[in-house]
Design brief:
With about 210 residues, this protein is of the alpha/beta class. The protein is built from 6 helices and 7 strands; from the N terminus they run βαβαβαββαββαα. The longest helix has 20 residues. The protein starts with a strand and ends with a helix.
Length: about 210
């Protein structure tokens, strides 16, 4: 019998949206009980902190699916993740393109695992700008990695990964190639997320006594 999973999704940008759409369309026993996302661009990208272009799609999709949507745009808000406790018990805390560290105390709340999807091979490209750094290093491929979250950022055990070829550098600038590859990676996020969920459940069953 397939395990029914309750998920809380920390999702932002197009990668998070693609994952949310895939979870909504999935016919397996997976329930997204809440979504947390960012409404505003970070100050480093936009001093005016304008609304993220995909935010309206998050609102529309969450409303259509009757999933509560929470907005988190500051570190102070990220430290509390207001309302998260109300969704307990839940099985998986799934982070996709989330800008903030998840509070260490909350990493122990999921019954199965806290899982993060990272756009880079770990541990080589932990942290920010993994695609750019991979291109600058001359790598011929980039990776979307799913790993268990621990208190240290991008340092938990890897569950699974998908490799994508860089292809021929064709953009007029490095930044153009980075954006192209980020777009090409979008279909991989749901694949990696689904496989990571299955592996995390299987690991839990293996560890269970008896």
């Amino acid at each position: 019998m397939e395990t029914h999973l309750r998920l809380v999704l920390l999702a932002a940008r197009e990668a998070g949206l693609a994952t949310l759409r895939a979870l909504a369309e999935d016919r397996r026993h997976r329930e997204v009980c809440a979504v947390y996302t960012h409404r505003r661009r970070p100050l480093s990208e936009d001093p005016q902190r304008s609304e993220r272009p995909e935010f309206a799609e998050y609102v529309e999709l969450a409303r259509g699916l009757s999933i509560p949507l929470h907005v988190v745009d500051t570190r102070a808000e990220a430290r509390t993740l207001a309302g998260l406790e109300a969704y307990q018990p839940f099985d998986v805390l799934l982070s996709v393109s989330w800008r903030f560290a998840v509070p260490a105390t909350m990493l122990g709340w999921p019954r199965v695992a806290p899982i993060n999807l990272h756009r880079g091979r770990l541990p080589d490209y932990a942290g920010t700008e993994p695609v750019r750094r991979a291109l600058e290093a001359g790598d011929r491929s980039v990776v979307v990695t799913a790993h268990r979250m621990i208190e240290e950022i991008d340092a938990g055990p890897v569950l699974t990964e998908r490799t994508h070829p860089v292809g021929v550098r064709c953009g007029p600038t490095l930044a153009d190639d980075v954006e192209r590859i980020k777009s090409e990676l979008l279909p991989l996020y749901p694949e990696v997320a689904f496989e990571a969920l299955e592996l995390a459940v299987e690991e839990q069953r293996t560890r269970a006594p008896g």
